[in-house]
């Protein structure tokens, strides 16, 4: 490709509203342009990178036994009604009507479509297992699209679905996808970790892992052991059940005035007590039923774990108005003593060891001191209901927990029979008995992966592409197009290098050398070849973008030199 013809408008300055490196660089290097909030066009350089990532994905998916297909982006809403997700998915699901007023959705994911597609075809155990995948545009109406293509409303995704006749078969399919993902992200040059995760609105029970690219701009927090391979999303990172023992003498319960003290910090400072001795009470609605969740004052209730406790995704924090309606007071004064009828109370494991605690009095500006379980209030159940904290013991018993930020680029789920039962996708087993298909689901954010690569591979001058995903192998520059010997050498090398199998971007523009060098650094191709002052001798300057290493090479030795060089660079 000759750069004179390349549609890749560059920017010298950082664009307004681009807060992270990947968004800035994708705009500055002309990979993308924004059409609306969270909606982007991919220009030729960006499309080339997408294609490279897609090729890696296809190669590893095919190697792992996947078969590519393509499903429609517009899906009948009735399929989502069958699965029960039409209302569960919420406002992120884009909905529309056709001219006949029939309801459709723009595909945020394709569990319903793939299940309906195979339910009449995979009707015998002899046809299993099967793994089907696609690479396609997805749509989610993000409340707050930001960070460029990292959180957008239209994005490119690889989604795969496995179908098995047994849980053991699903385990094998899941492991094959897990290993394929490790190969895919390694080939893309990413520093990542696979972490235990929550299935969220996708649903399903059993194993689920997120593949997280380590990055300070990541929106997810990874909890990992400092002494083992354990890692989990902070949303579900398990806190081992502590050995709690209530010691001491129970003191008399007393209701006290606590004017203008509603937060844990205000109560701790105003009453001179430690936060760990305060009983935090948080009201949730679980499947539309009120539930009071208790934990220590120095902890935070984890709503995802609350949902897992009840085996539901329908968990919402109560609004101040709802708190007042159900408890008779505002947030900050609620507690488990004399709570209105009909509110279930559950508590984090640590609460079982608390004695003589401070808790809300269910009355404005009132709290109880010396509150104790059983004597003063009931607890209907205990569980791991809090967010893990740095320094907590690791769930595998090895080491302590540390935190890191991560960008989710892939997610693998064991769906089980959630969708096959809802949509009646069944097969006949070897005994002629009808059984639901056992499913797995495996997603990769393709466009998000490109952004994650940029977050890890850039410097102050621009992009530094890993060679496997670079839009071109080489950047060939003629430093002074007015010099005949430079132009002639550039044209000669452009032809010979392409013939040798290299993908070359040839900067044949009539621009100053400084402009060309800056654009070359911004584009970040693995190797730059400059035809300059020694062009009349047939000598060019070869520079490795990642290391800055430079070497003068004669044109006759260039193909063999580059072949050797490309074996050493990443």
From TrEMBL:
Enzyme class: ligase
Molecular function GO terms recorded: proline-tRNA ligase activity
Compartments, record wording: Cytoplasm
InterPro entries: aa-tRNA-synt_IIb (IPR002314), aa-tRNA-synth_II (IPR006195), aa-tRNA-synth_II/BPL/LPL (IPR045864), Anticodon-bd (IPR004154), Anticodon-bd_dom_sf (IPR036621), Pro-tRNA-ligase_IIa (IPR002316), Pro-tRNA-synth_IIa_bac-type (IPR004500), Pro-tRNA-Synthase_IIa_type1 (IPR023717)
Domain Aminoacyl-transfer RNA synthetases class-II family profile: 38-466
UniProt KW Transport keyword: no
Keywords annotated in UniProt: Aminoacyl-tRNA synthetase, ATP-binding, Cytoplasm, Ligase, Nucleotide-binding, Protein biosynthesis
Lineage top rank: taxon: Bacteria
Catalytic function, reaction form: tRNA(Pro) + L-proline + ATP = L-prolyl-tRNA(Pro) + AMP + diphosphate
SUPFAM superfamilies attached to this UniProt entry: Class II aaRS ABD-related, Class II aaRS and biotin synthetases, YbaK/ProRS associated domain
EC numbers: 6.1.1.15
Physiological role: Catalyzes the attachment of proline to tRNA(Pro) in a two-step reaction: proline is first activated by ATP to form Pro-AMP and then transferred to the acceptor end of tRNA(Pro). As ProRS can inadvertently accommodate and process non-cognate amino acids such as alanine and cysteine, to avoid such errors it has two additional distinct editing activities against alanine. One activity is designated as 'pretransfer' editing and involves the tRNA(Pro)-independent hydrolysis of activated Ala-AMP.
Quaternary structure and interacting proteins, as annotated: Homodimer.
HAMAP family: Pro_tRNA_synth_type1
Entry remark concerning the domains of this protein: Consists of three domains: the N-terminal catalytic domain, the editing domain and the C-terminal anticodon-binding domain.
Family: Belongs to the class-II aminoacyl-tRNA synthetase family. ProS type 1 subfamily.
Entry protein name: Proline--tRNA ligase
Classification lineage: Bacteria, Bacillati, Bacillota, Bacilli, Bacillales
């Amino acid at each position: 490709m000759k750069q004179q013809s390349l549609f890749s408008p560059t920017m010298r300055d950082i664009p307004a509203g681009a807060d992270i490196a990947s968004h800035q660089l994708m705009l500055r290097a002309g990979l993308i342009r924004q059409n609306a909030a969270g909606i982007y066009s991919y220009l030729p350089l960006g499309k080339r990178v997408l294609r490279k990532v897609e090729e890696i994905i296809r190669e590893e998916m095919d190697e792992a036994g996947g078969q590519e297909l393509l499903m429609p982006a517009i899906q009948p809403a009735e399929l989502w009604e069958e699965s029960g997700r039409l209302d569960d998915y919420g406002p992120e699901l884009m909905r529309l009507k056709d001219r006949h007023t029939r309801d459709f959705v723009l595909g945020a994911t394709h569990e319903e479509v793939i299940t309906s597609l195979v339910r009449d075809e995979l009707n015998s155990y002899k046809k299993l297992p099967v793994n089907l995948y696609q690479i396609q545009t997805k749509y989610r109406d993000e409340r707050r699209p930001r960070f460029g293509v990292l959180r957008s409303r239209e994005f490119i995704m690889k989604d795969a679905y496995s179908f098995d006749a047994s849980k053991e078969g699903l385990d094998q399919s899941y492991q094959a996808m897990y290993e394929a993902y490790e190969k895919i992200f390694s080939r893309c040059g990413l520093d990542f970790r696979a972490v235990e995760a929550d299935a969220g609105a996708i649903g399903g029970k059993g194993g689920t892992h997120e593949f997280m690219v380590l990055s300070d701009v990541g929106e997810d927090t990874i909890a990992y052991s400092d002494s083992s391979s354990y890692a989990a999303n902070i949303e579900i990172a398990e806190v081992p059940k502590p050995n709690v023992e209530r010691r001491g003498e129970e003191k008399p319960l007393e209701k006290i005035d606590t004017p203008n003290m509603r937060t844990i910090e205000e109560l701790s400072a105003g009453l001179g007590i430690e936060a760990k001795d305060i009983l935090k009470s948080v009201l949730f609605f679980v499947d539309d039923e009120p539930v009071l969740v208790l934990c220590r004052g120095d902890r935070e209730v984890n709503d995802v774990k609350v949902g897992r406790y009840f085996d539901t995704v329908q968990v919402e924090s109560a609004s101040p108005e709802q708190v007042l309606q159900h408890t008779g007071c505002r947030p900050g004064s609620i507690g488990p003593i004399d709570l209105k009828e009909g509110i279930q109370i559950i508590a984090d494991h640590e609460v079982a060891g608390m004695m003589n605690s401070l808790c809300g009095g269910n009355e404005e500006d009132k709290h109880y001191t010396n509150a104790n379980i059983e004597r003063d209030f009931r607890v209907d159940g205990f569980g791991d209901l809090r967010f893990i904290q740095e320094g907590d013991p690791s769930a595998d018993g090895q080491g302590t927990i540390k935190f890191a930020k991560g960008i989710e680029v892939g997610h693998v789920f064991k769906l089980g029979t959630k969708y096959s039962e809802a949509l009646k996708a069944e097969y006949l087993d070897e005994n002629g008995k009808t059984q639901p298909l056992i499913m797995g689901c495996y997603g990769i954010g393709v466009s998000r992966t490109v952004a994650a690569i940029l977050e890890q591979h850039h410097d102050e001058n621009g992009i530094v592409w890993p060679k496997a995903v670079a839009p071109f192998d080489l950047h060939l520059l003629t430093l002074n197009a007015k010099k005949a010997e430079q132009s002639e050498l550039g044209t000669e090398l452009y032809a010979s290098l392409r013939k040798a199998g290299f993908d070359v971007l040839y900067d044949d523009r009539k621009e100053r050398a400084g402009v060309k060098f800056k654009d070359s650094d911004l584009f970040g191709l693995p190797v730059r070849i400059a035809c300059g002052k020694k062009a009349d001798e047939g000598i060019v300057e070869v520079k490795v973008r990642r290391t800055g290493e430079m070497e003068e090479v004669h044109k006759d030795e260039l193909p063999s030199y580059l072949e050797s060089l490309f074996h050493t660079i990443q």
